[in-house]
Every structure is written in structure tokens, then in C-alpha cells.
Amino acid sequence: MVEEVQRRTIASRRLLYSPIGESEKRTLIIRIVGPYLLVQGSVSFAFDEGASGCDIEFDGLPLQVISVYGADAIQALALAVDIVPYLRGLSRNYNLFFETGEPYF
């Protein structure tokens, strides 16, 4: 049985983006949600008591939520807040900017 988990945004970053080759900038909000304890049946792998997860959400782009897991809540959170690898992946298709208009990379 999967326990109902209250989703709570614990951190967010607001950026601008434009598809490569376009100039119009749009808003992208990245949210870190969690951490939450894993319960039996909530994931497809074995885990020990205390294992936790966090979700990374991308509001503004049609992307799937990315779930990351750790041995405990601190590890799950540490893995989730390291968003630079995900943003580097996005930069293959999008130019990313700070809200000031300066390039992110």
C-alpha cells in the first residue's frame, strides 16, 4: 500500500529560456519537492528503511518530473538540488537565462 504523501516545494529557481534559434524568452520555474519517505510499492526497486526521494519539476516546459532517491532524506535532497546536470541537458535544445537576461551558461 502506498502512503499518501503531502507534496511540499522546498526550493525553486526562476529562469528564462528560449528554444535555440528563437529570440522570445519564456519563464521556466524549477521546483524541488520533498523529501519524502519511500514506502513499499512506491518504486520498482528494493530499499532500506529511511530511504527517501525528492522530485524535480520543470514548470514552463513539457518535461516529465525527475525523481531522485537517496539512502535518507539528506542524500535525496542533496542529489535533487544539484540541478546543473539537468540544465546542461536542457541547453542542448534551449538557451537558458537568468531573469536579468544574462546567459545561464
Question: What labels describe this entry?
Answer:
105 residues; 15% helix; 5-stranded antiparallel beta sheet; single chain; 2 helices; alpha+beta; elongated
Give a nutshell description of this structure.
The protein has helices at 73-81, 84-90, and strands at 9-19, 26-37, 52-59, 66-70, 94-97. The chain is of the alpha+beta class and 105 residues long.
Q: Give the quaternary arrangement of the chains.
A: single chain
Which consecutive residue ranges, at least 5 long each, have pLDDT under 50?
Answer: none
Summarize the main sheet.
Answer: 5 strands, antiparallel
What fraction strand? Answer: 35-45%
The chain-level mean pLDDT equals 93
Descriptive report:
The chain is α+β, with helices and mostly antiparallel strands and 105 residues long. The chain contains two helices and five strands; from the N terminus they run ββββααβ. The chain is elongated and about 50 Å long. The model has no long low-confidence stretch (mean pLDDT 93).
